[in-house]
Design brief:
alpha+beta; two-stranded antiparallel sheet; 4 helices; 8 strands; 31% strand
Amino acid sequence: MSIPVPAPHAAELTAWRARFGDPLAHAVPPHITLLPPSQLHLDDLDAVREHLETTAAACAPFEVVLRGTATFRPVSPVVFVQVARGISECELLQAAVRTGPLRREIAFPYHPHVTVAHDVEEVALDRAELVLRDWEATFTVKGFSLYEHGADGVWRPREDFVFQQ
């Protein structure tokens, strides 16, 4: 589950990610993760959908400002664009998503962000951190999406859940 970064920002971030040499640039659309990739059984899909619909119905749209870069290095070879506004709303939303049939332990504390370089050479990570340090985008979050990992390795939205408040 993720909050998709909308156009035109998504295309711009994808292009930057490709320029930094990230092989996943065109396989992973720009997003703010709410629940890390999780395997779901088809038998559980109806309960998951109902849970996500209920979660979305209780939420209201909120503004996100993406601004500047940071990194998870040395723990993980990732450079990301920071969520400068909308952090608490993302935190509350991910906590609500990760309940019921989607209750999961996560490996790291939740930190909303948009990855722009992952598993590339150090020089590319450094470049990503420097080049996008002044990058900024603002958009209204009106819901979130359930993604499916295709056999071709591409993550695609399977279903959108729109906020109802």
